[in-house]
Amino acid sequence: MNSTIYDVSRLSGVSIATVSRAFSNPERVREHTRQKVFEAAEVLHYSPNAIARAMARQRTDKIAFLICKEGATILDEFYARICNGIMGESNRTDLELVISTAADWDLTASNAKNKQVDGAILGGNARPELVSELQSRGLAVVLVNNRMPGFDIPCVVSDEYGGVRQVLEYLMSRGHRRIAMLAGRFSPYILNERYRAFLEIAKSHGLPADTRAIKLCDPTVESAAEACRELLSRPDRPTAIFGTNDILAAGAMKAARRLGLRVPEDVAVTGIDDTTVCGMLEPELTSLRIDGYRMGELSAARLQALLAGETDIPQLTVVPTELRVRGSA
Amino acid sequence: MNSTIYDVSRLSGVSIATVSRAFSNPERVREHTRQKVFEAAEVLHYSPNAIARAMARQRTDKIAFLICKEGATILDEFYARICNGIMGESNRTDLELVISTAADWDLTASNAKNKQVDGAILGGNARPELVSELQSRGLAVVLVNNRMPGFDIPCVVSDEYGGVRQVLEYLMSRGHRRIAMLAGRFSPYILNERYRAFLEIAKSHGLPADTRAIKLCDPTVESAAEACRELLSRPDRPTAIFGTNDILAAGAMKAARRLGLRVPEDVAVTGIDDTTVCGMLEPELTSLRIDGYRMGELSAARLQALLAGETDIPQLTVVPTELRVRGSA
DNA sequence: CTGAAAGCGCTAACAG
DNA sequence: CTGTTAGCGCTTTCAG
User: Fold this and answer.
1) What are φ and ψ of residue A322, in 5° steps?
2) Is residue B24 part of a domain?
């Protein structure tokens, strides 16, 4: 159906080896010969078959971005940013990117689905067993938005601790002392980082914030609104609610409205991720921007370094955050 | 590195052909023999190499979902739903799914990147040349959320016309006569369908809606707010704004607020897609639900039919919509 | 700089 | 039911 290297060889009058070189190592074939090959290829609509190439090279030049999180949406806005960063970087180096879900790979990790990429970037809550499995198959693996102590693996994360500090210090600078955190049950890593940071930083600033100031909820608007209702009904009502992402913050605003509280006058609200909804809410949401694009770029770079056999690859890369102040706090 | 069919053959004492069969057509090898093969495979951590298999079979058992739209986010909530539908269906049949952007494929369509999937589902505004190119390479192709007159290709779309009617009739039932449409410059297909439907239906109901009642804008909150401001400043101010997606509707609500108008008392607002933001807005947004999941499932089913060589595959599949009434209208 | 030839790991007739 | 034997399309020594 599609023409092969043999067709081109025949039409151009050179050997298949030369055709192969013309496409893979152009500089190793004389200008004139190369011309002939390309012309023939043009005529025949030939282009190298990636599968055969992968087979011969024992390498696919493809990498995967694996989303490790349950939930309906495969890519939410935050992961889409990471994904774009990975694309940007992998395009620069002619690597192909395939996006998939961990669920997909888990099911049949021991099946034929593997060996089609040279490496993988695992985003979110990857299971350690998946990592071992992949590594043992000889794949290069890096983690993004997650860490895995005890594993020999490059990780790219956001500065969670610093980010939480930025939010808290901003809130304190606006006079808030009773600050509550509405923490979504995301991946254990993220939840834990933000939880711990909140407690430590609040304590170091002498805020009256113990674990009671943190309320867990599911990552949905309604769950957040419900959890926040409880928070806002306490006698010592918090004056500020720090949602660990924008969805939760939206839920908090909703809870405030239902209780007849004004934002930000009666209660300030902040989110994390700086997603599109921030601009849709009323008032607009103050949110901590996490540089997902950069995280994606860096994780792709780490993966390439791994693939290139480099040593001394940083095991941890931390990307800074930035607070975007808007009307809600 | 990884063991091959030869290793398993040796260890289990059967030929490689039998090993191959044990994995591909288990029923064609005696129970006892199969056992032996699987045990050996277990020991060796063997699993068939998908690339070699694809090479021999001349078939990859992989399909692609190509997102054909520019813009920062590779997968927005609506496309993520389609994607989930595709996944659901393709998992059922052991097809692997790779997600990619059209930009990615365009760049190097003539390069090695091809021939790694048996078929593709193109979502959104696919260029006709891409379709021809893919089809000429022998790939099975289907379109989702788009149509391409003149092409021999199965398309799966939402009932745009009926959806617009549902919204308009609902609005009219609530007494609205001056209804304006805030139309986002999405893919030409979608824009055109909604535009035309609006005009025709409004006219058939005797509404005073000519093309002036439709205002185009970019698909961002701010662009929508700006466009809507103009709409709401007219002497014969519309009493209802029909945004062609939820983002635009959010922009409309924002414009209304800025002008001191109450939603829905002074102006009603409706959206399309029924995304998560509907529940975050105040009041919550009435929106037309488009069944992206079903669209995804159906397009995957069409693709499989194509792959299976079936004939009489419907060229057009229309999925019904449903209005979700909330506080904004 | 170019060609010949040996694979890469697996499948699919075709025999037996 | 199982083994033999050609490939699938390309890369890569190794010679020339």
Assistant:
1) -150, 135
2) yes
Classify strands A286-290 and A268-272 as parallel, antiparallel or unpaired.
Answer: parallel
User: Measured in angstroms, what separates residue B21's CA from nucleotide D2's C1'?
Assistant: 10
- Enclosing domain of residue B30: 5-48
The first and second tokens of residue A261, run together, are 């509280």
Residue B304: predicted pLDDT? 95
pTM of the model: 0.91
Encoded tokens for B48: 């068939």
What's the CA gap between A41 and A47, in Å, rounded? 7
Report how far residue A157's alpha carbon sits from residue A299's, in angstroms, rounded to the nearest whole number.
9
A48 touches chain B (CB under 8 A): yes
Measured between CB atoms, does B259 come within 8 Å of chain A?
A: no
Q: Could you tell me if A183 and A220 lie in one domain?
A: yes
Proximity of residue A16 CB to strand D below 7 A: yes
B100–A98: do the CB atoms touch at under 8 Å? Answer: yes
Q: Looking at residue B261, which CATH number applies to its domain?
A: 3.40.50.2300
Q: What is the DSSP string of B168-200?
A: HHHHHHTT--SEEEEEE---HHHHHHHHHHHHH
Residues A78 and A133 in one domain: yes
Q: Which residues of A286-303 are buried (b: 16+ CB within 10 A; e: fewer)?
A: bbbbbbbbbbbbbbbbbb
* A44 and A94 both lie in a single domain: no
Strand C contacting residues by CB (7 Å): A 13-18, 21, 28-30, 32-34, 52, 55-56, 58; B 2, 4-6, 16-17, 20, 23-24, 46, 48-49, 52-53, 55-57
Is the pLDDT at A210 greater than 90? The verdict is no
Express each pLDDT in A127-165 by its tens digit.
Answer: 998 899 888 888 999 999 999 999 999 999 999 999 999
Residues B298 and B238 in one domain: no
Query: Does residue A57 belong to any structural domain of this protein?
Result: no
10 Å CB burial of residue B91 (0-12, 13-18, 19+) is middle
Reply yes or no: is the peptide bond before residue A283 cis, omega within 30 of 0: yes
Which residue shows structure tokens 């970037």? A121
The backbone torsions φ and ψ at residue A99, rounded to the nearest 5 degrees and listed phi first, read -105, 135
Q: How far is the CA of A24 from the C1' of C9 (A)?
A: 22
Q: pLDDT-based confidence at A33, cuts 50/70/90?
A: very high
In this predicted structure, the answer to whether residue B112 has a pLDDT above a threshold of 70 is no
The pLDDT of A59-73, averaged and rounded, is 84
- What is the rounded CA–CA span in Å between residue A195 and residue A203? 12
Beta strands in chain A (DSSP E): 62-68, 96-101, 119-124, 140-144, 155-158, 179-184, 214-217, 240-243, 268-272, 286-290, 316-319, 321-324
Q: Does B269 lie in the same domain as B171?
A: yes
The number of folded domains in chain A is 3
Q: What is the mean pLDDT of chain B?
A: 92
Q: Does residue B93 fall inside a structural domain?
A: yes
